[in-house]
């Protein structure tokens, strides 16, 4: 009983303190609401739920690849390869090449053999100075993924602006005789050597650029999307690179008889290619979905001083309590009958494909409720900003809402509000207007997007009692993102 009363008193005191702080906040921007500014000079004491997760536990990552005197892939002793593991920390073994661009002709070929059961890597051209995530910027590569008894190949690229593409559905696929649908070609993980090639032609696809890849007698073609070549890319390495995402199972892959732009390496002796992180074991906390965000003593977002909000934000999974997380300020209930506002600084330092960060106003009960439905990634009764985007286009900062079980989002035609995972700090602003059906406007730099609420959305009676970061309801990968100098509506009169 004493524990319960103490807990209730703490919650009551926290609410009273929130009201007092709000009353002392900066003057109202317009009639109807007051604001609070949080500069994170110290830990703000926000509500923290699973944001510093201990489950799943950290995993040991083993990287052990490079030159080897073995003969798995070639006809004689000597090859490159070994045990390679996906992880957020880059690891590669590659040959240095003169700087190349999307205006250059590129070619590579060789022999490939897979003996491990599970692995995930890129084989091809990349830039050693821009390794931070997957999709990997400045890359043209075969993605090789082992899944037990078989491995699969994908042809993909990403330019310097994180805009990416891949081969057509008619690439490394076959038709399933049972269903008639296309499915990925399966290659047995039994050490059988396979011949492969990778070629880029800047004049292909009518000058847009085209990539052609082969394995044995199969061919896949990838035409660069319109505008992707013009944005450019730079390549200075050719070799093998782990997939840079959360840690996963590793395995053995071997390469031999590699020809790069007409020059052949047989690996009869150590070629002394560059190896980075390729011979070591360590403990990694980048395990999906090990959330690690909240108050941080860092200064990535460019605030007035040290201290900010952020960290590693995975997509959540609304079916399980331990796979949802949030870090948010407690607020007196806010409604859609008066304006809402939020603004601040943001820095996206890492953005893996299939990742999302949500920051905004939400309801502590309905937004975070656990239910089996997987019909939407955006949680109920949320209104704010999303940072995500399709792999073909990179990342955007845009308005989103879901009220009473329905909602919308706006990318702005893949033009406005682009944000790059390069760590640069930016200003952003969120504004909700109650006029008409209601609308949300999100500004980012000199660009902005406006999203109209659907008819009747205001009438559902949503009440927001939190402001901060909350995870999505459908799982995925992670971003490393930081916010600072946040100003937001804390009370409506």
Give a description of the structure.
This protein has 493 residues and is mainly beta. The strands form five sheets. Strands 3, 4, 6, 14, 15, 16, 18, 19 and 21 form a nine-stranded antiparallel beta sheet that branches. Strands 1, 22, 23, 25, 30, 31, 32 and 34 form an eight-stranded antiparallel beta sheet that branches. Strands 5, 7, 8, 9, 10, 13, 17 and 20 form an eight-stranded antiparallel beta sheet that branches. It is elongated and about 80 Å long. The chain has helices spanning 2-23, 228-231, and strands at residues 33-38, 47-49, 59-68, 79-84, 92-101, 106-114, 118-126, 139-147, 150-158, 164-166, 173-175, 182-184, 187-188, 194-201, 210-215, 218-223, 234-242, 251-260, 263-265, 274-276, 279-284, 292-296, 308-314, 326-334, 340-351, 357-362, 382-388, 396-403, 406-409, 425-433, 439-444, 447-452, 464-470, 478-492. It starts with a helix and ends with a strand.
Helix content: under 10%
Outline the biggest β-sheet. 9 strands, antiparallel
| Beta-strand content | over 45%
Shape, principal axes of CA atoms: elongated
Assembly type of the chains comes to single chain
TL;DR of this structure?
The chain has 493 residues and is mainly beta.
Helix-strand layout with pairing:
Blueprint: H1 2-23, E1 33-38, E2 47-49, E3 59-68, E4 79-84, E5 92-101, E6 106-114, E7 118-126, E8 139-147, E9 150-158, E10 164-166, E11 173-175, E12 182-184, E13 187-188, E14 194-201, E15 210-215, E16 218-223, H2 228-231, E17 234-242, E18 251-260, E19 263-265, E20 274-276, E21 279-284, E22 292-296, E23 308-314, E24 326-334, E25 340-351, E26 357-362, E27 382-388, E28 396-403, E29 406-409, E30 425-433, E31 439-444, E32 447-452, E33 464-470, E34 478-492
Antiparallel strand pairs: 1-34, 2-24, 3-4, 3-21, 4-18, 5-17, 5-20, 6-14, 6-18, 7-8, 7-17, 8-9, 9-10, 9-13, 11-12, 14-15, 15-16, 18-19, 22-23, 23-34, 24-33, 25-30, 25-34, 26-27, 26-33, 27-28, 28-29, 30-31, 31-32
């Amino acid at each position: 009983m004493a524990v319960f009363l103490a807990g209730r008193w703490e919650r009551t005191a926290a609410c009273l303190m929130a009201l007092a702080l709000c009353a002392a906040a900066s003057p109202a921007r317009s009639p109807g609401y007051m604001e609070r500014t949080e500069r994170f000079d110290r830990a703000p004491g926000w509500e923290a739920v699973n944001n510093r997760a201990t489950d799943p536990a950290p995993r040991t990552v083993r990287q052990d690849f490079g030159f080897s005197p073995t003969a798995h892939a070639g006809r004689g002793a000597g090859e490159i390869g070994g045990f390679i593991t996906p992880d957020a920390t880059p690891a590669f073994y590659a040959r240095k090449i003169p700087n190349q661009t999307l205006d250059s002709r590129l070619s590579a070929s060789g022999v490939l053999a897979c003996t491990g059961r599970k692995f995930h890597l890129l084989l091809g051209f990349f830039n050693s100075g821009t390794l931070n995530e997957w999709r990997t910027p400045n890359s043209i590569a075969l993605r090789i993924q082992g899944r037990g008894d078989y491995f699969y190949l994908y042809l993909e690229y990403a330019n310097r602006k994180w805009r990416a593409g891949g081969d057509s559905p008619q690439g490394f696929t076959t038709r399933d005789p049972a269903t008639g649908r296309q499915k990925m070609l399966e290659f047995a993980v039994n050490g059988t050597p396979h011949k492969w090639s990778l070629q880029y032609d800047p004049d292909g696809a009518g000058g847009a650029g085209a990539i052609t890849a082969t394995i044995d007698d199969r061919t896949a073609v990838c035409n660069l999307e319109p505008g992707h070549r013009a944005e450019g890319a730079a390549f200075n390495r050719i070799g093998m690179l782990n997939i840079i995402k959360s840690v996963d199972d590793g395995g053995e892959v071997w390469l031999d008889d590699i020809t790069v732009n007409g020059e052949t390496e047989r690996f009869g002796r150590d070629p002394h290619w560059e190896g980075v992180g390729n011979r070591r074991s360590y403990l990694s906390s980048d395990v999906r979905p090990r959330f690690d965000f909240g108050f941080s003593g860092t200064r990535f977002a460019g605030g007035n001083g040290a201290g900010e909000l952020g960290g590693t934000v995975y997509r959540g999974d609304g079916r399980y309590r331990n796979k949802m997380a949030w870090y948010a300020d407690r607020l007196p209930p806010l409604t859609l009958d008066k304006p809402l506002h939020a603004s601040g600084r943001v820095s996206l330092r890492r953005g893996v494909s299939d990742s999302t960060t949500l920051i905004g106003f939400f309801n502590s009960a309905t937004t975070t409720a656990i239910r089996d439905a997987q019909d939407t990634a955006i949680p109920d009764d949320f209104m704010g900003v999303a940072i995500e985007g399709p792999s073909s286009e990179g990342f955007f900062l845009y308005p989103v809402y879901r009220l009473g079980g329905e909602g919308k989002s706006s990318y702005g035609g893949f033009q406005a509000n682009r944000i790059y995972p390069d760590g640069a700090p930016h200003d952003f602003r969120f504004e909700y207007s109650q006029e008409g059906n209601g609308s949300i406007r999100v500004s980012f730099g000199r660009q902005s997007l406006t999203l109209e609420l659907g008819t009747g959305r205001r009438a559902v009676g949503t009440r927001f009692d939190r402001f901060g970061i909350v995870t999505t309801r459908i799982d995925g990968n992670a971003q490393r993102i930081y916010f600072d100098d946040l100003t937001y509506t804390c009370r409506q009169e």
